[in-house]
Amino acid sequence: MAILLYRLGRLSFRRRGRVVALWLLLLALLGGGAAVFSGPTTSKFSIPGTESQKAMDALSREFPQAGGATGSIVVAAPEGEKLTPAAVAPVTEEAAKVPGVLAAVDPFVSKAVSQDGRYALVQVQFDGVVDDITDAQREAFSEAGASAEGLRVEHGGEIMRGVPEIGSTEVIGVAVAALVLVLTFGSLVAAGMTLLNALIGVGAGMAGLFALSSTVELTSTAPILALMLGLAVGIDYALFITSRYRHYLAEGMDGEEAAGRATGTAGSAVVFAGATVVIALAGLAVAGVPFLTVMGLAAAATVALAVLVSLTLLPAVLGFAGVRVLPRKQRAPGGTPAAPAGAGFGFRWGRTVARLRIPVLVIGVVGLGALALPVQDMRLALPDAGTEAVGSPNREAYDLTTEGFGEGFNGRLVAVVSGDSAQATKAAAGETAALIQDTGGVLAVAAPQMNEKGTTALLAVIPETGPTAAATEETVHEIRDRVAGVTGASVALTGATAVGIDVSEKLADALPVYLLLVVGLSVLLLALVFRSLLVPLKAALGFLLTIGATFGITVTIFQEGRLADLVGLDTPGPLVSFLPILLIGILFGLAMDYEVFLVSRMREDFVHGADAREAVVSGVGHNGRVVTAAAVIMTAVFGGFVLMHDPIIKSIGFALAIGVLIDAFVVRMALVPALMHLLGRAAWWLPRPVDRVLPDLDIEGERLHREIPVQQKPAELVKT
């Protein structure tokens, strides 16, 4: 592996003009494809095969007029006054004239008026699904009722759901990353080159993703997640290889040889670190959730592209940069030499951790365990309008509905009764309505609505509690249990609330299987890389501490609401249902990045003859600065997404940022060297039968050093 990448690095360096031209051409082609073939994203979160989704599919076939998108208009009279049919009529009439609207129901006909007469709900049914609603339709819908003087009119429903957009907040993360790179390298050229390399990679990845969006259904979260990860790992991988390149230049190698060896050694670590991330993200497919599979594969493709860019484009760009990647004092012949081996904060930290290894292990494990305690109270749900930003149209409509009718009106359920004949369906619908009405937690059940054939009936069910309340989940399960015995027709419960509950339960069931799969595969991969049993096990256990503490902190802030103001969270609530499994996949990959970056240098020094404990200090000393810089950069990139208003993106960005901080600074920079020093030579123990079976991947470059000895030239570092 190391020799192959060494040759690739030298080739890219030598043919740098052609390599850069090819990447720019690819970027242009992908950009053109994105401009021509880009399609809309979807805000739907559903899982085929669940009861709620089967019912929705049946509605589309048997009751098409009820299968389209819906909206709601909440009308409120001034305090102390009551609404009249004449006052609300203009709102209903204007809503009915919106393009694509099948019907707007008069609240006085549907009896959707509050008991005090002050509030009314106008239900609006569209003929198309929510993803087909255009911006012009939304705009027209939001203006319905503008002529109603003296009344408060708010517009909500699924068609008003906000779609997260890539905006200026991400620039903050990139700016912080640039500052960290300048401080780390001491060179504007090195920092700018590293950042540019990552931006080209993420640009190509995002363009390719949008080019496929017309044929692959992308959720609105998928492109942002791909951007988040692609940018973070792109900078980190370029940082790691560039740091090794500078190290070799400082040792006196010429530019081409330094680029080849940096790609062969640090590049090998990047390949396996990237492979771990890709495995973790692609493994999301085991959950059997289509939207999550697409999110994982999209992010995995972006990470894979970041690895490819780092191995080919980066050596080429290094060729153009020349000695300017070094600090100014080290560029000229006879300039200030690099710091001697064994000097610097990284080595001092490594020795300190080695000396205090027992206290470090005890404090670290106990502290992270304490932070994980809130996990036992974690609740999952799909976000509803009640968690959107205060002041957004959907949130205003949600709050006004709750004020006038109660929170249950925001979480309506739909019972779908399907029979072979009109008579059987009608009888089953009546029986179903009676059973649901007697269920605890149900506020009201509307009269059945029949399709034209009379073989499908809809019953609107209003729970007493809101969409994400634990009591609503219990009500849904109780309703399903009670109607299971209805004869003569099949009964299924659906609606946005039921869909959310089904998705959350499906993901919760898949979580242990996914965790076991990802950890197991990564342990095998790390065993191949480091030829050790204890190092992979240590890495996996360290990750479990990271994920527990990250979940605990996220639950404390986003679910329980403590310190919520610090992240700009308006309304705490259950964590978004796919956050845990997504967080495990991403954080595990990133955690193994740091493990590979840090321990690969320990392994490299060990196989080259260093004492096992000296190798630990050397690994922390040489690569600790790179790992901490990479962690700060990732935290900055992820933290930039915390500033977005969308609660899903905000929670993902926060959890990733805090997880990276914990894993890099507590687990990898403290617990790992402490445990490695405690284990000593035993850390690299591998049973002989296993040693004979495992292939030698040579990530540390031992074969490279043996078969291609270093040839240093006193000539210029780089010839341009």
From TrEMBL:
Primary subcellular site in the record, as a coarse category: membrane
PROSITE patterns, per database record: SSD
The SSD domain, residue ranges = 188-320
Enumerate the transmembrane spans. 171-191, 198-216, 222-240, 269-292, 298-321, 356-375, 511-530, 537-558, 578-599, 626-645, 651-671
**Membrane-related topology note:** Multi-pass membrane protein
Annotated localization? Cell membrane
What Pfam families does its record include? MMPL (PF03176)
Q: What protein family is recorded?
A: Belongs to the resistance-nodulation-cell division (RND) (TC 2.A.6) family. MmpL subfamily.
This protein is called MMPL family transporter
